[in-house]
Amino acid sequence: MHRVTSLLSAVLLVLLPGLSRGYFPEERWSPESPLLAPRVLIALVCRNSEHSLPLFLGTIERLNYPKDRIALWVATDHNLDNTTAILRDWLVQVQNDYHYVEWRPQEDPSGFEDEAGPKHWANLRYEHVMKLRQAALDTAREVWADYFLVADCDNLLTNRDVLWKLMRENKTIIAPMLESRAAYSNYWCGMTSQGYYKRTAAYIPIRKHEREGCFAVPMVHSSFLVDLRKEASRQLAFYPPHPEYNWALDDVIIFAYSARMADVQMYVCNKETYGYLPVPARSHNTLQDEVESFLHTQLEVMVKNPPLEPSSFLSVPPKQPTKMSFDEIFMINLVHRVSRRERMLRTLYEQELSCKVVAAVDGKALNTTDIESMGIQMLPGYKDPYHGRPLTKGELGCFLSHYNIWKEIVERGLQISLVIEDDLRFEVFFKRRLQTLLHEVTVHKLDWDLIYIGRKRMQVDHPEKSVPNIHNLVEADYSYWTLGYMMSLQGAQKLLRAEPLTKMLPVDEFLPVMYNKHPVSEYMAHFEHRDLHAFSAEPLLVYPTHYTGDEGYISDTETSVVWDNEEVRTDWDRAKSRKTQEQEELSSEAQNSDVLQSELENWSTREEL
């Protein structure tokens, strides 16, 4: 039987020597090669984009798509900054990598006649941009491009496969939903009969990824892909407006109307994270405002991703980190939390802030002997207000980490310090707002010991008292978290004089005790002097990177063991933990609505538009 099988195999090898050979020698063939990637024209219209171009162009370079199948169409004009020179230098370096490059610079003038400032969208500017986008679209058709990609020059396409993924959806017009610090994104779910934005119930579930997929919407903008192979795409136009168009002169609305008249449905896709974009500036904002807003977008990328690197063909001047007006900036980090430390150091560097990294005390590594040798005794009768459990080793380590900083402040005689933890994200204009706050409390000679810049407000029944003559500051009520706070020398001295190691409780319970705002009077009775002058920024300047239930959430204080019994773990009720959940929306009665607000707060809103 074995001989028969071997003989049959030999015969088959003779008769079927390979898939690429026929019965006769002249019928031999080779396997078919794969199709070339579709041709894409990327249209870039940039104005006053010096601050964003290094990172933006870096994302274009790193797209996972063959460059010899990409054409670049680049226009810039009416600039007050170095945009033209940066784009020219970049194009000179990369032009041989791409199939085709068209360069349309215009040096003068630096502004439009009817605009009030560089961020004001007046009619002449709208019309000019529409003509440029139409010229780019015409070029795409002339060079027989299969796809036309529009990308604003501050949109960061961090997903390198975004082109392939959008193409697979087989839509005439499709946008990758871009993330921002707010509800704002690059699509609308509703449009009024006059062509303006309309709020709908459909928007937020898409924006928050509660619904995922590709959704039909009346408007996409900023970054989107057009399939020029589709017959209906021939009717799409940016300029001139459709003959029946009588809405506002606005490039994105005019293009959406063009799609509607061509019976082309627009789509937005949120199946994964494709990229990020800044919240647009208001007409009265300055270029510096826009620079800082884009910096915040860059920092938001780093919350869940590696830091973005600039184009390899552009040189970026090094940052000049300082401590601002602080004597020291302390950043607490557990040694084994390397990724957190690296992210925070890079985030601070990008904001030109320097810090001293303080090795956090790892409470889990402490045994009973260690605790006793430090003279630590637990506050009699202490139980977590929400869980009913004793102090955890993680909370013990957290307290000691902050306690060691208070000691250093006193030992070094540091008048004003900033203390931050390693799991926070910064609000837009963080540095400027912090500088303003520090300046105002100094000018008005506020007697302060502690100023929270990040916390979780726990008293939600009534508003906190605002501080007269100082913007964005309230007297702090019962609060959780020690994400970030300013500490005076006087404040650190008060905390140490209370001898908290002899009546230990979590640090974010201890601080409200010391400023006499803790709801449990039995705990406060153990501390005779409760005269810490505590305030809080309002709105806050920092927030946690993650909350309970978020992907990537880690808590070294909550996920721990009871301080005197390693058999009792304390993360069983993490899903119900009130301490680590996001701050619930306050009722209108409890809002700190009478706080003196600075003009920057208009930019800090988290609305859709």
Q: Secondary-structure map with pairings?
A:
Elements: H1 2-15, E1 40-46, H2 53-61, E2 70-76, H3 83-94, E3 100-105, H4 123-142, E4 147-151, H5 162-168, E5 173-176, E6 187-188, H6 203-207, E7 214-217, E8 219-220, E9 223-227, H7 251-261, E10 266-269, H8 287-304, E11 328-333, H9 338-350, E12 356-359, H10 368-373, H11 393-412, E13 416-421, E14 424-426, H12 430-443, E15 450-457, E16 473-475, E17 479-488, H13 489-497, H14 507-514, H15 521-524, E18 534-537, E19 542-544, E20 561-562, E21 565-569
Parallel strand pairs: 1-2, 1-4, 2-3, 5-10, 11-12, 11-13, 15-18
Antiparallel strand pairs: 4-9, 5-9, 6-8, 7-10, 13-17, 14-19, 15-17, 16-18, 20-21
Helix pairs in contact: 11-13
Would you summarize the structure shown here?
The protein has 609 residues and is of the alpha/beta class. The protein has 15 helices and 21 strands. The chain has an eight-stranded mixed sheet, with helices on both faces.
What does this structure look like?
It is built from 15 helices and 21 strands. The protein has 609 residues and is α/β, with parallel strands linked by helices. Strands 3-2-1-4-9-5-10-7 form an 8-stranded mixed sheet, sandwiched between helices. Strand 20 and strand 21 form a beta hairpin. It is elongated and about 90 Å long.
Tag the structure with descriptive keywords.
eight-stranded mixed β-sheet, seven-stranded mixed β-sheet, 21 strands, elongated, alpha/beta, 609 residues
